[in-house]
Amino acid sequence: MRYRLHLIxxxxxxxxxxxxxxxxxEGPHLHEWSTNTAERSASFQISPLEERHHGGKLLGYxxxxxxxxxxxxxxxxxxxxxxxxxxxxxxxxEGPTYVLAIAGYTSKGEGKQRIxxxxxxxxxxxxxx
Length: 129
What we know:
Layout: H1 2-20, E1 30-36, E2 41-46, E3 60-67, E4 76-81, E5 86-89, E6 98-106, E7 109-110, E8 114-118, H2 120-128
Antiparallel strand pairs: 1-2, 2-5, 3-4, 3-6, 6-7, 6-8
């Protein structure tokens, strides 16, 4: 009976170690978008990633954005820490649709991305409301 209890404790610790060595299982949600067409910028709020999705110690978020259909070298990369809540994207070009991907990361790497699109029409509609 003692041997069986000891084995169960080992399995629980082993599973916890596996969890700590993973990457985040989903990307964070973005909300409260705002734009400034005069400054060609857009900003948004990052909802903190729930701890059950961290896959270990969350170190931050990687944000990639680029014009849809643009050359590969136009992708912009931001690396923000896990406590960052508000992000501002600057020097956006008027007209094209931008694709934005955000993912959390741990020491083991980048997790699953959540993808968004920013269009010129959406930017203008948001500034009129």
